[in-house]
Write a structure and sequence with these properties.
The chain is globular. The chain is built from 15 helices and no strands. The chain starts with a helix and ends with a helix. The protein is mainly α. It binds fe (ii) ion (FE2) (2 copies). One fe (ii) ion (FE2) is lined by residues 107, 111, 137-138, 220.
């Protein structure tokens, strides 16, 4: 762990708090006996969130024939983990868009979908965990933006001009979004699996969980508007996937996530 990440974290006077509803929603999966009722109860206190969630559940993404008018009905049809993922995505939107712009929100959601699809395809992670891994993988970027927005803008320009994101951040901030995201994940008490994937999504072989970190790595690579090149040998070795299958999967991911953006207002 680079010392510089914790130094930067100390400089930020007010660390963003994880939205309360997410703290609760993430806590619930550990205790599945009471989950369904608890999730409904949480939603009952947040009408704005409930209406967004129901809008999404009724979107083309899920394609249910009947209209779903309550959270409890959504839970019955989609199951707890899918509903929980929707809640997380909707509840994080304000923080992601205010700190990282529309691009970050879009990339995060797409990466959540990609990770979930990859988990279904390979079995290296629980698909429900995978969505959260993909969705939160770049969360450290919001800290760079909070620490120094102007400098972070420069980093974004450097990346647009083809520089490696981790190199650019290390140059400008002496730390990077992977290390910062890891620290934030620990502050937010996210699972070890999640924190690990956040830390190693640009360097999966350094992880003690290389398979699932490679899943996060690949989900990220295929979730940009222009797909990034990825290490084909690594992907084959860790996930057993050929390039052609990955590119096919990317098509599905783009289609699915576009259906989500059009509902949630990308
Ligand atoms: Fe990243
Ligand atoms: Fe990313």
């Amino acid at each position: 762990m680079s010392l510089d990440a914790s130094k930067l974290l100390e400089q930020i006077k007010e660390l963003p708090a994880m939205p309360n509803v997410i703290v609760k929603a993430l806590g619930i999966i550990k205790d599945d006996t009471s989950g369904t009722k608890e999730l409904s109860d949480i939603m009952a206190y947040d009408q704005a969130l409930t209406s967004q969630v129901l809008k999404l559940v009724n979107s083309a993404y899920y394609g249910f024939a009947q209209e779903i008018t309550s959270v409890s009905k959504a839970l019955a049809l989609l199951g707890m983990t899918q509903t929980r993922n929707i809640i997380i995505a909707v509840a994080m939107k304000p923080m992601l868009t205010s700190q990282g712009g529309r691009d970050m929100w879009k990339h995060s959601l797409r990466c959540g979908v990609a990770a979930e699809c990859l988990a279904n395809m390979t079995g290296v992670a629980d698909p429900a965990d995978a969505f959260t891994i993909g969705f939160l993988h770049d969360i450290g970027k919001i800290l760079l933006n909070i620490a120094d927005t102007m400098t972070y803008q420069k980093v974004r320009t450097m990346v647009k001009n083809g520089e490696d994101v981790i190199d650019a951040e290390n140059d400008m901030f002496e730390t990077n979004h992977a290390d910062l995201g890891f620290l934030l994940a620990k502050k937010w008490k996210l699972s070890v699996l999640l924190a690990n994937c956040i830390k190693y999504h640009h360097d999966p072989l350094s992880s003690s969980m290389p398979q699932v970190s490679t899943l996060a790595y690949l989900a990220n690579k295929i979730s940009h508007d222009e797909p990034d090149l990825f290490d084909e040998d690594l992907v084959k070795e860790q996930l057993g996937l050929e390039v052609s299958r990955v590119m096919e999967l990317r098509e599905t991911v783009i289609e699915k996530s576009n259906a989500l953006f059009s509902t949630l207002g990308s």
